[in-house]
């Protein structure tokens, strides 16, 4: 099946010489929630703005739903809905009017417009005819999602959609996104909340300094992490961690708990426990913690920066 978005050797160099994208290539499979992650300044916004037609690429190609963004710009734009990170809205229009105007810009016939249906789904029906400037920040963000959906695009890009919103609204937004995904919409998500990406995304690409440093299914990305933590409770109080343990890092939590970080390709938990016993300490309790997406993200971005 053809990818929802196909990006090949995409480059962008700005007039001041800054290379924001350095030959980025990846596919967004159809029907998935795809995470696009990276630190500030990594090139995520530049990439999204190129897909949106707001920034001209320097080199490479990009296809949206099979349409080249240069050769078939109109159809490429119709295949995508973008929810920007910034809250942009028309203060003197009502939410209903804002959706109707947006639908008109996409040449959606009046008989096919779904403005009230979208507002109802986003829990904005009771605000349909209030001025948009009277809406709360969370309501404005939901309205942006509604504007991105008026032409019923098969792909929805969400750029930091839950930045600065409370937990309850975040859960509401993701509940609606899951509904869209279940109905067949391909979703591309950028977020600073790594636990959010870990829970929601089928696949994740990580961009750093304009390059793709990882691109894999979420579970495979997590499984590839070699770093692991062993949390050991010993039988007596300690003033400092025992010397000579083969772990990469040894920390203390309280006076009796050791947190040992080790590379599982080099060392096993059993070998580490033997080393602790060799110091004369008795082991009272043991637990482990696998690397999460935050660990992987920090490792990949710091490694490339170094």
TrEMBL record:
Residues 5-234 form the ABC transporter domain. SMART domains: AAA (SM00382). It comes from the Bacteria. Keywords: ATP-binding, Nucleotide-binding, Transport. InterPro entries: AAA+_ATPase, ABC_transporter-like_ATP-bd, ABC_transporter-like_CS, ABC_transporter_ATP-binding, P-loop_NTPase. Pfam families: ABC_tran. GO terms for molecular function: ATP binding; ATP hydrolysis activity. SUPFAM superfamilies: P-loop containing nucleoside triphosphate hydrolases (SSF52540). This is ABC-2 type transport system ATP-binding protein. It comes from Sphingosinicella microcystinivorans.
């Amino acid at each position: 099946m053809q990818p929802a978005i196909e990006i090949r050797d995409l480059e962008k160099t700005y007039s001041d010489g800054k290379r924001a994208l350095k030959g980025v290539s990846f596919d967004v499979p159809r029907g998935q929630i795809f995470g696009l992650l990276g630190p500030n300044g990594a090139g995520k916004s530049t990439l999204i703005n190129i897909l949106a037609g707001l920034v001209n690429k320097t080199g490479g190609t990009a296809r949206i739903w099979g349409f080249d963004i240069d050769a078939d710009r109109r159809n490429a734009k119709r295949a995508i809905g973008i929810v920007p990170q910034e809250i942009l809205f028309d203060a003197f229009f009502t939410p209903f009017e804002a959706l109707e105007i947006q639908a008109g810009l996409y040449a959606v016939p009046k008989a096919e417009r779904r403005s009230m249906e979208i507002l109802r789904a986003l829990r904005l029906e009771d605000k349909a005819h209030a001025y948009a400037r009277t809406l709360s920040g969370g309501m404005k963000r939901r309205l942006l999602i509604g504007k991105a959906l008026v032409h019923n695009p098969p792909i929805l890009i969400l750029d930091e959609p839950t930045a600065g919103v409370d937990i309850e609204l975040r859960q509401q937004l993701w509940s609606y996104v899951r509904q869209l995904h279940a109905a067949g919409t391909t979703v591309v998500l950028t977020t600073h909340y790594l636990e959010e990406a870990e829970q929601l995304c089928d696949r994740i690409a990580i961009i750093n300094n304009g390059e793709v440093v990882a691109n894999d299914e979420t579970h495979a990305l997590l499984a590839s992490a070699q770093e692991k933590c062993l949390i050991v409770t010993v039988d007596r109080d300690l003033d400092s961690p025992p010397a000579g343990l083969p772990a990469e890092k040894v920390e203390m939590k309280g006076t009796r708990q050791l947190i040992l970080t080790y590379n599982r390709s080099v060392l096993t938990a059993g070998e580490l426990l033997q080393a602790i016993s060799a110091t004369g300490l008795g082991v009272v309790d043991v637990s482990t913690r696998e690397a999460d997406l935050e660990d992987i993200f920090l490792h990949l971005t710091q490694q490339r920066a170094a």
